[in-house]
Amino acid sequence: MRTDDPTAEATHLLQDLIRNACVNDGRPESGGEVRSSDLLTGYLEGGGLDLQHFEPQPGRRSVLAKIEGSDPSAPSLMLMGHTDVVPVNPDGWSRDPFGGELVDGMIWGRGAVDMLNLTATMAVAFRRLAESGFTPKGTLMFLGVADEEALGTWGAEWLVDHELDHVRADYVVTESGGFQMPGAQGPCLPVMVEEKGTYWSKLTVHGTPGHASQSFRTDNALVSAAEVVRRIAEYRPPTVLSETWSRFVQGMGLPDELLHVDGFVDYISKLPLGFSRLAYACAHTTMAPTVAHGGTKTNIIPDSVELQVDVRTLPEQSGDVARSMLLDAIGDLADRVDITSKDDPATRSAIDTPLWDALGRVTSRLCEGSALVPMLMTGGTDNRFFRRAGSVGYGFGLFSRRLAFEDYATMFHGNDERVDQESLKLSTELWLALAEDLLA
After folding, report:
1. Which of 143, 147, 298, 377 could form a disulfide with 192 if both were Cys (CB 3.0 to 4.6 A apart)?
2. CATH no. of 196-344
3. What are the tens digits of pLDDT across the range 36-63?
């Protein structure tokens, strides 16, 4: 796999990571990240690195590599890429989602955007730094982590809870951000400095069983569940415009309408789909019914239906606030519904940090005329565990203009994920330059 061309090397590594198909559906036995952990181990060991492995659940293995710093008081940097991907329906794809095909400079496959492209480029940059004899003042780490796509139970959460001495870092960079968005003065590069919380909820909707041949006036849990789903899907919580959102809008030179609560939703409804979804999520708690299970037999009126709802809370919103919104959405059907939730609050990092400054210096060279803008990550990343442990955590990469924001936004967990080789080149150069700037 080792070549003189780092872009070709990152391409091959990304293709192999895609083909490993480490699909995480949330079950403890899914994922199989050991396959990609072994792949990364074999690749990094070729650079003479000593590695550590962590496997709290069979098959859910993470790999950690370090280049030790010469000054124990100097800040440390972790490049963190996850190795698992979300499930996929091949019927919606133009190409094999696990084929890792290279077509016209694009690598196709599940995880190409989320986030195997960055995992691969981080590993390539890390090995090249090791082979170059890089001697930083602060320690540089690479973590290929399992289970990011299902709350981090067997990955980052477990590592922070049980192996913090091994993975502690002053600065952590992981996925998202770094796509080029056209601003008033040139390309703007969003940096994910905070992310929404999760309040994933299981709703059990109750009814009364009976014979389906006599359906008149029955208490059908499935019918009630359908109404609960409709109400949640149509619920519109209050618009909240945060300081981070204001800085993003002003930094991008976007219209002032995006800074006013009144008329906000009407205004963004007329914008392109990807940005419209992003803007809404940045300014609202969101609730998306995603899974339903119920019924036992065609001729039996179901007495119980289970719904799963993905709730994402804004910074400084508590789980109690999220629960009250759920109840408000469900309305007079609440007495038929039991709610069980896991509260994982939002996190944020400051932007007046050496890491922010280093990213600014590096990206101004790699992407001429660009400027960093802070942004809210509407999903969740493993950064939240490290932020709570005291790290400054940002979501960032560096993508070419060939990967338009509209495509980037809709490919996350969607169909036809793909990334271009120019983006792999830029991200690899980013990690090399960032390590030199921040740690040398």
Report:
1. 377
2. 3.30.70.360
3. 999 999 999 977 788 999 999 999 999 9
